[in-house]
Design a protein that fits this description.
It contains twelve helices and 13 strands. The chain has 336 residues and is an alpha/beta fold.
Amino acid sequence: MRTPAWWYGNGGLRARLLAPLGLVYGQVTAGRLARGAPYRAGVPVICVGNLDAGGSGKTPVVIALAQRLGARGVEVHVVSRGHGGRLAGPVRVTPSHRAEEVGDEPLLLSAFAPAWVAKDRAAGVQAAEAAGAGAILLDDGFQNPSVAKDLSLVVVDAARGWGNGRAIPAGPLRETVQAGLARADLVVSVGDSAAQEAFTARWGAALRGAPHLRGELRPLPTGMPWQGIRALAFAGIGQPEKFFATLRSLGTDVVATQALDDHQPFTRPLLQRLEADGKRLVAQLVTTEKDAVRLPPEMRTRVLTLPVRLHLDDWGPVDAALDRVLGQSQGESRQP
């Protein structure tokens, strides 16, 4: 589903009417986080999550951390709930899996590190440990109390921020900004310079001194001459318009776009319509990496993919935090 546009304005009358339900939602989240004893893994657990519903750029952050940890020689595994997949797990994702089984994000992430799908996050972490993980990236799960986190990164889309500051259904938040940032070690806002300035102006005071890193998603150089390509672009991600804008910034002639719901399955009628529209417009089909893994194998060769990667202005705070959690795991016994 797509998040309502009014979540990212002042919300008006709808937000005010739904505000009591939002308060209840936030209280339920706080109560869930306060209950129970989380599983303490024997290796560092690094959580990448967000405070709001919808796309914020978490997956590129997970990829960047997996690559950074891998460069240190750390055997890092990813544990995900597998949104959109039917397998409860824990199951290790393999190339033979389909998106409808394990979800599109774990399929994409499995190209960068061993990835596990588990509706029960603690069970997934235990499976990754048993398979030899030296560190675990918890994809999402910031509001999941079943696993203790050694490091938590909150990712936010700089252009949208935290919307109207209200909790679901009155706004986009899963919990209050104050409560969420109290547990965050690092905040990563993702967007261009104009969006970053607007985010700092609107939400800078709420950060309360939490380390704030500015990041941007940039196309990965692939040698593909995007300039001048006549394209029909389609995307089923949190914010398809950002993908379309990126293509245009590369000089691609985007003659048509199709914005789909986040994680929307590619049914045969939908794919047939996209291909028919592409032929009618004499346009090349282009999509995102996350969408590409949901395509049937026979169609992937007929669709171009634009990969993007996270660029941070300063990796220093991330590297220092990784030094800390990796050093603790090597120099101290880890007690439950």
